[in-house]
């Protein structure tokens, strides 16, 4: 199956990018965030997620692996399909979404077109629950977050770690990604963004 598609950006429309790879035009459903990284007539690369059913073969493309993983987590939430997941990621970055989930900020998630209160609450409930079950354990014990964990707290490492756990990353991946970041020089959301850039490819 496709892992990524690289070539010349032939065209773009609302939540759609067409990449010409060796003479074949691949139409990929994508987010406005990923589209901002592309320019018609120039080379582009999108990591892909494939939806294959009897009646369709749809490609979804993302400019970063972090955004792709976030999309996969969103569609794992009951009632959230690919269109809703794209809408949510078009209105928020992966790091911003993780912060919204930690802060239980349903209003920010509801900014996405077609996403109502029930869906926003379900995203928060199910993904925060996954985070709680998979939160990394460090020396001295497991990381436990208060019910109303809010971004920008005194422990930036814990906040960033929790947010990355929301996005589905493991203890080892998070530790490696945070290792070379100057925590004191950045706000939590910036730390998460830098950590996502440090993550190795998902094969």
Helices, strands, pairings?
Layout: E1 4-13, E2 16-21, E3 24-29, H1 32-35, E4 43-53, E5 56-62, H2 65-75, H3 82-91, H4 94-102, H5 106-109, H6 117-134, E6 137-138, E7 141-142, H7 156-166, H8 171-178, H9 188-198
Antiparallel strand pairs: 1-2, 1-4, 2-3, 4-5, 6-7
Shape: globular
Kindly estimate the percentage of residues that lie in beta strands according to DSSP: 15-25%
Say what oligomer this is.
Answer: single chain
What does the average pLDDT come to? 82
Whole-number tally of structural domains: 3
Helix content: 40-55%
Distance between the termini: 11 Å
Q: What's the gyration radius in Å?
A: 17 Å
What does it look like?
It is a single chain. The chain is α+β, with helices and mostly antiparallel strands. It has 3 domains: 4-62, OB fold (Dihydrolipoamide Acetyltransferase, E2P), CATH 2.40.50.140; 66-127, 5' to 3' exonuclease, C-terminal subdomain (DNA polymerase, domain 1, Orthogonal Bundle); 134-198, no CATH class. It is 42% helix and 22% strand. It has 9 helices and 7 strands, in the order E-E-E-H-E-E-H-H-H-H-H-E-E-H-H-H. Helix 4 crosses helix 7. The protein is globular and about 50 Å long. The N and C termini lie close together (11 Å). The model is unreliable at 134-154 (pLDDT under 50).
């Amino acid at each position: 199956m496709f892992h990524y598609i690289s070539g010349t950006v032939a065209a773009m429309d609302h939540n759609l990018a067409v990449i010409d790879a060796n003479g074949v035009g691949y139409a990929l459903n994508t987010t406005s965030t990923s589209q901002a990284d592309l320019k018609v007539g120039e080379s582009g690369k999108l990591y892909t997620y494939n939806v294959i059913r009897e009646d369709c073969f749809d490609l979804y493309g993302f400019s970063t692996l972090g955004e792709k993983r976030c999309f996969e987590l969103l569609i794992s939430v009951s009632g959230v399909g690919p269109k809703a997941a794209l809408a949510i990621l078009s209105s928020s970055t992966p790091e911003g979404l993780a912060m919204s989930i930690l802060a239980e900020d349903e209003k920010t998630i509801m900014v996405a077109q077609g996403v109502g209160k029930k869906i926003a609450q379900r995203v928060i409930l199910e993904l925060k629950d996954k985070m709680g079950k998979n939160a990394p354990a460090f020396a001295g014990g497991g990381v436990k977050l208060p019910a109303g964990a809010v971004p920008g707290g005194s422990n930036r490492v814990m906040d960033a770690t929790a947010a990355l756990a929301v996005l589905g990353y493991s203890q080892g991946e998070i530790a490696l990604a945070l290792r070379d970041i100057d925590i004191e020089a950045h706000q939590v959301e910036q730390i998460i963004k830098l950590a996502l850039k440090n993550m190795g490819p998902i094969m």
